[in-house]
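Lab notebook page, bench 4
Experiment: in silico fold of construct C2
Operator: M.H.
Input chain length: 276 residues
Purpose: comparison with the prior construct
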Amino acid sequence: MKIFAPAKLNIFLKVLGRRSDGYHIIRSGITFIDLYDEVEINISNKMCIRYKGPFRPKGNTYDDCMILKTLKFLGLSKNLNLDLTITKNIPVQGGLGSASTNAAALIQGLEAMKLITKKEPNIYTMLGADIPCFLFQKNCVVTGIGEIIHQQTFPKYYFLLVKPNFENSTKDIYNKLDYDIDSYGRISEYEEIQINIDDIGNDFERVVFRENSEILEIIEFLESLDEVIFSRMTGTGSCCYAVFEKKEFALKANVIFKSNFPDLWSCVCENNTINN
């Protein structure tokens, strides 16, 4: 069984406050792009997890392996042997949901192979806040800590996606927010679903820009490109993107970007391919 695990982009991302248990409440518009990791699952006589691809971990292992955590969460880490190959095409710690989309793909594959029964997606929130939306895999507005999902319509966009030469730890970035415990106000279901004029930007940018001038320089350069609609950091970063109406605009922008930032990874991608 091979599952394609898409990256996500946050069209907007607002942090509304912090619960009494320490989890932050967010509201975000999420779309999925045609940049995929691949998760291949085979039943085997011994457990093996291997990584391939341009963003595979050094030493072929992660200190905090989401695949192992998912198997443990599912109660499969001791009584089922699998040969798992994960091809990492999505930059890690880039705000693209790399670990969560791998976990969701593993869950989908195990369900399809009848090795686990299908469960409500929101039970996986405590494993990874983005996992429910990766199981949903449609344009959506996400609230709560990631467990409340409403399908939404976003335009067809072409993105110039870029990766600076550093990674951001989601946990570290959240810890740098200055929200007090129990500091959020409840919002109505209408407010959860309805897109409004305040649904722009990314609240994590104020933390990241304050500490890293490189990412601010990249965002300002993306903003200066011809035909750009807007540019933004996705998630907690470090990846950034510029949005275009036509693919030809994005391809031209990528050429210009590479001539100015030859050492940085970039690609042109689009949404509404699997999730419209």
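Observations: The longest strand covers residues 24-43. Strands lie at 2-18, 24-43, 48-52, 82-87, 140-143, 148-151, 158-163, 231-233, 240-244, 265-270.
Next step: discuss at group meeting.
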